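Friendly challenge for the regulars: who can give me the structure tokens for this chain first? No prize, just bragging rights.
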Amino acid sequence: MAARARLICASSALEEGGKGVRFEVPWAGETMPAFVVRYDGRPVAYLNRCGHVPVELDFNAGEFFDLSGLYFVCATHGALYAPESGACVGGPCAGRGLKRLAVLEREGNVYLIEGNETYE
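First reply, four minutes later:
Bragging rights claimed.
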């Protein structure tokens, strides 16, 4: 299947280190929650699923960063993840990171690259 771009949101919806935009993706035969945020000037997206236990990270919709704004934090378990890679950096995730999704920003919009079950 050829990859295609699916609109997630307008670029202006993502502020550096701010709230993320939630959306859904097909993943392993299911529809899974996902999110995109702006970090280090570019959008990054992941499945919204803690590496420790499969629960969504955000307690309040779209709030993924810890108080420092440096890491994603699981509101349920306190696991910390590096926004640039999704790697586990602390807490009960025990080395299990987040599943990253391929996104593209162009012409004022952010797109999910679909048609590739493994994504990025």
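DSSP finds no helices and ten strands in the chain. The chain has one domain: 4-114. Your move, everyone else.
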